[in-house]
Amino acid sequence: MSPAAIGALLGLVFGAGLLLVIRRLPFLRKPSVDDRIGPYLRDLGGGNVFLGVTTSSSPFSAIVRLFGPSLRAGALRLERILGGSASIRRRLARAGIDQSVEEFRIEQVLWGTVGFGIGLLIALVALSLGAGNPIGLLVLSGILAVLGVLSRDTYLTTQVSRRERRLLAELPTVAELLALSVAAGEGPAAALDRVARSCRGELAEELKRVLAETRAGETLVRALDGLADRTGLVALSRFADGLAVALERGTPLADVLRAQAGDIREANRRDLIESGARREVSMMVPVIFLVLPVTIIFAFYPGAVGIRLIAG
């Protein structure tokens, strides 16, 4: 790369940085309405980062507080480009993450920024070694930024899957404990409270939320319906619907819970068998493409060498 091109690239970077600094000078930046009234609404904002407050446990929370205006603007642009707020809100609820869509968008911006920074670092190393095209390296940085944004969305889907697996693993035990409590003479609400206090895990936290909603004035049936809507799992929805129907119609609740626990364990057993069958097929790939060729080489190579020596 010629010295002129390197100087032009450095000048472009310096000019862009200088422009950003000038744009963020206090006397040139007009505060928005949210920025002006945000400090007076901290108790009412619910931790909304667009009011300048964040209560998220994210590791990026300090960066959000430091670069709040720029990140909020980037999150708004990203929301206009990608959309899908309803899907993100539903997946956040299913993952059990106490986070708003705006906070999630800011995390996506930060992940994209990290990807772009990695791309710039690779570009600087390549240019210092005299390899690579500046335009191609800039495109690579942009691709890494896009991958960073999409990786946060993919990671959210992974978090949802992990939590759903934990809920399904805890559900049979919780159902049997509820059946024991009800059979011992406790009411449905008291049994839920006992199990929620005795157990640890994702499902216990969901039961605590159901009890909190009932204490706030919601009926137990409506709270159980909300549990089914939040989780989105068929087995858990069937469990909540069974509880609701038993409470409404007076069906023996202990028998219903025992039957549901047996059904859930049977479904888990079928899923385990299906997963084992899929893994068995996947294990054939290294056997066929790695182990078998190496075995054939070890079997035939000495013979081939012996034939070549005899023929020579």
UniProtKB/TrEMBL annotation:
Location of this chain's protein in the cell: Cell membrane
TM stretches of this protein: 6-22, 109-129, 135-156, 287-311
Main location: membrane
Record keyword Transmembrane helix present: yes
Superkingdom in the source lineage: Bacteria
Residues annotated as domain Type II secretion system protein GspF: 176-298
A GO cellular component annotation in the UniProt record: plasma membrane
Membrane topology: Multi-pass membrane protein
Name of this chain's protein: Tight adherence protein C
Phylogenetic placement of the source organism: Bacteria, Bacillati, Actinomycetota, Actinomycetes, Propionibacteriales
